[in-house]
Amino acid sequence: MWSVALLAFAIDALIGEPRRWHPLVGFGRWARALEDCLYANRRRRGLVALGLAVLPPVLLVTLLSFIPSMATLVSVLALYAAIGLRSLHEHGYAVAHALETGDLDQARTCLSHIVSRDTAALEPSQVAAGATESVLENGNDAVFGAFFWFLLAGAPGVVFYRLVNTLDAMWGYRNSRYGRFGWAAARLDDVLNWIPARLTALTYAVCGRYRRALACWRTQAPAWDSPNAGPVMAAGAGALGVRLGGPAPYEGQWHDRPMLGEGSEPESGHVHDALSLVRRGAVLWLILVFLVEWSGLAHWMLHA
Fold first, then answer.
1. For residue 38, with 0-12 CB atoms within 10 Å meaning exposed, 13-18 middle and 19 or more buried, which class applies?
2. Do the beta carbons of residue 42 and residue 182 sit within 8 Å?
3. So what's the pLDDT on residue 186?
4. What digits encode the pLDDT tens for the residues 61-110?
5. CA 299 to chain centre
6. What separation in angstroms does the CA of 279 have from each of 30, 223, 266?
7. What is the spatial distance between Cα 96 and Cα 272, in angstroms, rounded to a whole number?
8. Is 77:23 a contact under the CB 8 Å cutoff?
């Protein structure tokens, strides 16, 4: 398991996401086609669409995993396709670099690629806050959550997790179109992320300002509207010593959000710090998996 995970992370570090024929892009097109055919703003219809979107690729990966000659390759490719550590770095760095060079318009444009909020009128500190929040939250979705489900359920588990996560990003909005149709995807994503989000928050604490991260997690996360994003971003903000959250514009209106973290006002350096925090966390997880496997192997050799 450790060697498969290390290889998947190494491939991601070397080449990043596929520029063409990315599996998640293809899945997104498949999900959009299903939405066009099945859409009705009813929970049952959304549940049917979710099942038809997710089950075929998961069953295919499951079947391939039972073929001895393909099992390892399928596992490596599944985890590699699910994680996005290098992509997260590239998107976050682009925002930070634009801020550092004084190109606010470019920074806003780069931020618009990774957040759903309106970015056209954001001030530099708001752009830095948005990028930092995105790095912290996607550290869970695209790194630790995917890794957790791979460790727990192998290639089928990580594929199932990442596809549901993608559907939540597409359909999980509380608006007039998706409020009921996207309910199943949003709730299933919440369930799948409950444990990974708290492990991610703990990882941020261990790799950053530990006591401050735990304090922010305990006192601030319950006020956040997402049961999983709250712990992740509160602990991450505390670990970085930065103030995040607060009002943000969505669909032409400013929405009040609780404050997260404590410390200085966000700036470009905090985006770099968030990226470093996620990378250190990924290394920590790889080390822990190696130690668990090594201790198990040593125990088997001593008692064989």
1. middle
2. no
3. 94
4. 999 999 999 999 999 999 999 999 999 999 999 999 999 999 999 999 99
5. 35
6. 32, 28, 20
7. 7
8. no
Point out which residues pair with 255 in neighbouring strands.
248
Is pTM, for the whole model, over 0.85?
A: yes
Is 84 within 8 Å of 138 (Cβ atoms)?
yes
DSSP structural state of residue 123:
-
Residue 104: phi and psi, rounded to 5, are -65, -40
Q: At what angle are helices 85-100 and 2-15 packed, to 10 degrees?
A: 40
Give 196-242 pLDDT, tens digit per residue.
999 999 999 999 999 999 999 999 999 998 999 999 999 999 999 99
How far apart are the C-alpha atoms of 167 and 189, rounded to whole Å? 9
Residue 2's closest CA among 288, 299, 211?
288
* Token code pair at residue 103: 């190109």
How many Å apart are CA 101 and CA 154, to the nearest integer? 43
Identify the bridge partners of residue 264 per DSSP, sorted by sequence position.
Answer: 242
Long-range CB pairs of 210-218, under 8 A, 24+ apart, other chains included: 210/239, 212/238, 212/239, 212/241, 212/262, 212/263, 213/238, 213/239, 214/238, 216/260, 216/261, 216/262
CA atoms within 13 A of residue 197's CA, in its CB half-sphere: 19
Are 216 and 235 in contact by the 8 Å Cβ rule? The answer is: yes
Question: Residue 250 and residue 180: Cα distance in Å, rounded?
Answer: 20
Token pair in block for residue 227: 């049961």
Name the token pair of 114.
Answer: 């990774």
